[in-house]
């Protein structure tokens, strides 16, 4: 018998809630199960091996909870773990189930937003070092030049609500200026980390008005809709009661309180211990 299940949305922490909001707005008919590995975040400065191991544990958890489709709503996990999970693990752990990331949908579109054909990417250290954005963009927009800037301190600043302090603002400004110094021709900046949409307005105040600042949520939502349209074998396995549930590897009260800064969803989360898998 075919058991339908929610669509799994995974992030290292709170940032994926910004993506879930856009997905849920566009596709409210489906059920979603959000999992944040807050106890082990941030992922951005961790090694390839560790990010892969943690992401695989999270994906297995979501599959065990009935998901047939999991979105890695985390650029760092998408950059460092997605390909190996898709190519090596899926057929072993869950044949027929699918895992998608956020980098491919972003790179399929972002080049078309730029007139100068010079793009800026702000992301975690892990995402930048992986070079995934540069490699993927080359496939879809070979005429585009990509300038990347790692912002290793932004996720901790945002998670700890310190991005609005004088020190926090100075760090943010410094990284943006570093990116802009790489080329005067950058006309489009992609926020290549799910946490950054939270400070989009602050970023827009720092960059010249002529530069477009793009968050990923709507791009990912649109791409998911198109994926479900093209893959009825997965779509028919997605349950449709419009329900949301939230899981975290952290203390649930802490998660529920902090999550309120990232989303307007009313959250009562459940604890999971991913390290015991
Ligand atoms: N949310 C992750 C991303 O989009 C970064 C957060 C982290 O470093 O854990 O890259």
Q: Strand share of the residues?
A: 15-25%
Number of domains: 2
Major pleated sheet: 6 strands, parallel
Distance between the termini: 27 Å
Strand order of the largest sheet: 4-3-1-2-9-10
CATH class division of the largest domain? Alpha Beta
Small-molecule binders here are: D-glutamic acid
Could you outline the blueprint of secondary structure elements for this entry?
Layout: E1 7-11, H1 16-26, E2 32-36, H2 48-64, E3 69-72, H3 75-80, H4 82-93, E4 98-100, H5 103-110, E5 118-123, H6 125-130, H7 132-140, E6 145-150, H8 154-159, H9 166-182, E7 188-191, H10 200-206, E8 212-214, H11 217-230, H12 232-235, E9 244-248, H13 252-259, E10 270-271
Parallel strand pairs: 1-2, 1-3, 2-9, 3-4, 5-6, 5-7, 7-8, 9-10
Helix pairs in contact: 1-11, 2-4, 5-7
The site of D-glutamic acid has 17 residues, from helix 3.
